[in-house]
Amino acid sequence: MAAYVGYDAMYRDGIAQVMPGVFSQTVEFSDISYQSARKEARETAFTVMSSLFNYFPADSHVQLQVVNAPIPADEVGRKVFFEPGERATAGLAEEYNRILNDKMREGVSNLVRHRYLTYAVGADDVDAAVPKLARIRGDVEQTLARIRCSSRALDGAERLELLQGQLRPGSRFEFSWDKLSPTSGARTKDFVMPSTLDFKPEGRSDCFCSDGRYGAVLAVRSFGSVIEETYLASIIDLPLPLNVTLHVQPIAQSEALALVKRQIDWMDKEIIDEQMSAVKKGYDYQILPPELRFSKEEAEELLDFLRNKSERLFVYTGLVYTWADSLEELDRRVQQVTSVAQGCTIGLEPLHFRQRQALNSVLPLGDNHVTVSRYLTTGQVAMQMPFASQSLDEAGGGYYGQSKESGNLVLCDRKRLASPMGFVCGKPGSGKSFSVKREITNTVLAHPEDEVVIFDPAGEYGNLVGALGGANVELAPGCSAVLNPLDTADVADRADAAKLAYKTDAVLALSSALMAEGREGLPERDRSIIARCVGEAYRECARDGRLPTLGDFHAALLAQPEPEAADIALRYERYVKGAFSFFNGQSNVALDNRITNIDMHGLGQNMRVFGMITALEMVRNRVMVTPPRPNYTWLYIDEVQSLFAHPTVVEYFARLWREGRKFGLICTGISQNTSHMLANAEARDMVLNSEFFLLHKQSTADLDAWAEMLQLSATERGYIGDAVKPGEGLLISAGIRVPITDDFPKGPLYDLWNTKPAEVAEREMRRAAREAKE
């Protein structure tokens, strides 16, 4: 049975000896947003894929594959997305797992798509093959990185698991290298091969049976007049287990030119024969058969491409492999695949009596055993893009909805991003708050070692934080909480100069929020006075061994000779005396809970900005400690646009955005109206330095601003336009762009996240009625 699989040996590093003198390696590469991307992005992807195929020499063989692999049946409906964790969140985790498993059972989500590139080279032995394959791997990874497509080489065990998944679909992979002892005589083939292989099940020649599962490999026989970039995606997007394989054998340029010239010479002879025959019969010799005339024109065009337009010629074989539990189901799937292909003007035909060779050809080994081939140019091969509807399914990630294109669960882990900072934006009623609360729940359940801080200017996160076992801190007149903008407790081990620089920046931002008119910012004289008084307040209080407060800063301002100092002091007076003096004192609020909500709905607009900047300083002190902490701090800032009113505030916030990443701070800005924010240069830099965006329905001005900033295509604009429903939108995670929709069922989690006034009011009435009965 082992002789039925076309390779000789598999090594631990992932190199396979396909046959004597031929060795291959497989690279898995990620998806990109191609089908919905802008024209310029698609052209760039086409150029990169063209250069990738042109890179391979004539003595190599290239195999491109897209595999739709079913999720194991024992995982469907039983997957643990979130561990129970603490007692306070155990019930929510159980409910969340139940809902997501119900969504998995819908069927489409039971497939995971992978893309592979396998290349084979000739070498005397494996030692000689290693540097060749390593060089190719490095060049392939660099080329794919140009379109933000990450890639990695599979090791030996991963290639064997991939082989087994094609030979024995649905079987559990239990191989380990320890089982290959010299005394056992076992080979890797023995662990991946099926027990039985029947290439004439029930007398049929167009399929085979492997351990009770039926499979069929179809070959691409014909294309339409033009190869469309969407044809491969149309087949890949089918909700079926599939393996779409393209074998590409480069032809040496000199040989390709000679081949085309011979074809032209043959056609010239045919033309001469046709003309002589026409003259003998008295016809016009200039009238040629259309097929011959068109073939001659195509051949001459091809010769020009090969000579002058960096095109190469390849021997191409296209195969499609699918499988099922019964012959009846297999026939239905084959019919579905061929119908879609026919709609794309692709002719697919079964390979009668050649299923053994076909099966070996769809295995990721870099060897083609099927002779159904044709010649294609670089552009024709590169046009067959392996990128279909993009998916995002990161292990350990939180749930953000379902893909609007495929229905797959969208699971994202922002901690994997190089720059995890992000924004969640949308019009009121678009589902923005629901999405943020869901992500906060994701964060708490998926990352129990991390902490969460929320700036809540509307007082809408309290119920969620309480249910998650967190602490709500209310900042309002008459409350007991006190925040000291000049507190340095969390950076006590920093040098005095560094602490003073931090606090000077913070007080300048506070002063800008209080004093700056329009968008002019603070005058330089005011900035100098403020910096001087901050230093004097710290020096005076250091003598008493205590931290300064706003009252000390205010006293230092009153002691200055400049009239501007008196004006600054007057503006600060209401925060030092009276109802708003809860910012004047030593802090009694600490971020010592895993989840802390800073509730500022009791503050007016100006006070709210003042409170947000003060709380931001507390968070900055928290995360910028030495040595760095192993856990992350997730900061959610609602109505973030209010921080962009003055240049000094923007400068302070942008610095926190840039520096926080190095200290494990993951910031999320939440906003309803973003066009005003994106008009600010610092804010635009923050967006450009962020890799996570969750955009819901946008107003016209905001939509134009985001489209320009993120280079959204017309299709992607439609995902956040006026026609989308609440909960729908566009999720961008680094280079991945997924249109999402979310029909989350009502229940305990829905009630925690829901912010629709009518439904919230109805829920509160029901709760009050229950309490009255009790």
Automatic annotation (TrEMBL):
InterPro entries documented for this protein: HerA_central, P-loop_NTPase, T4SS_component
Pfam families assigned: DUF87
Domain spans labelled Helicase HerA central: 424-475
NCBIfam families, A to Z: conju_CD1110
Protein name (database record): Helicase HerA central domain-containing protein
